[in-house]
Design a protein that fits this description.
Number of helices: 4
Radius of gyration: 17 Å
CATH superfamily: Jelly Rolls
CATH architecture: Sandwich
Oligomer: single chain
CATH topology: Jelly Rolls
């Protein structure tokens, strides 16, 4: 299942806050975990965005599911040769499935992947780029993926723990996104201090 929603955020103040927050992309690739608005008030922009998506404006009927919390992180890809301030980001993201990476890396790993139950990718405004499409292999990695353009204020919902996906190369400019995964049980990495609980 893939669902795509354009012009998703209607709240102009939230759009402006994300766009003008100079720290929004300050630590790309750093995973964080929030137990949700029912356990702790949203106290940063990432949590306010998560609450906006999943509590106030979730566009799908997914029935009653148990949610322990939300894993979130930002990501940046940029075209080769576009590097600014000596910082270099990869131009793409290799094909993968989302899971508890630290758990999988433990000695004696039993081969059972711990995965989120659902996830989404959101593209904030403020980036100019070409390429960087999200490729989702809904029919398996031996078949052609579904290609979804990365557009400002677009939300993509899918199951990243069960469906392989990647980011195709950014051809020009820099692309930013935030990913948010729902977990029905607290990830091992949170309980063991690998992912910061916020």
């Amino acid at each position: 299942m893939i669902a795509v929603f354009d012009n998703f955020i209607k709240d102009q103040s939230l759009l402006d806050e994300i766009k003008n927050d100079g720290s929004f992309f300050s630590d790309p690739g750093k995973y964080k975990y929030w137990k949700g608005w029912w356990a702790k008030d949203a106290d940063n922009i990432y949590q306010r965005l998560t609450q906006y998506i999943f509590n106030q404006n979730f566009p799908l009927d997914i029935g009653a599911i148990n949610i322990d919390g939300f894993e979130y992180w930002t990501g940046i890809q940029e075209a080769i040769g576009n590097h600014k301030d000596g910082v270099k980001f990869q131009d793409k993201l290799e094909m993968h499935l989302d899971d508890d990476v630290n758990y999988r890396a433990q000695p004696g790993y039993d081969g059972v992947r711990l995965t989120p139950i659902m996830g989404c990718v959101y593209y904030p405004e403020g980036f100019t780029f070409e390429g960087g499409e999200l490729a989702i292999y809904t029919d398996g990695t031996d078949n052609e993926p579904e290609i979804i353009k990365a557009k400002p204020n677009r939300l993509i919902i899918f199951n990243p723990g069960q469906v392989a996906h990647c980011v195709l190369p950014v051809k020009t400019g820099r692309r930013g996104a935030i990913a948010i995964n729902l977990w029905d049980k607290e990830p091992w990495s949170v309980a063991n201090g690998f992912i910061k609980l916020q």
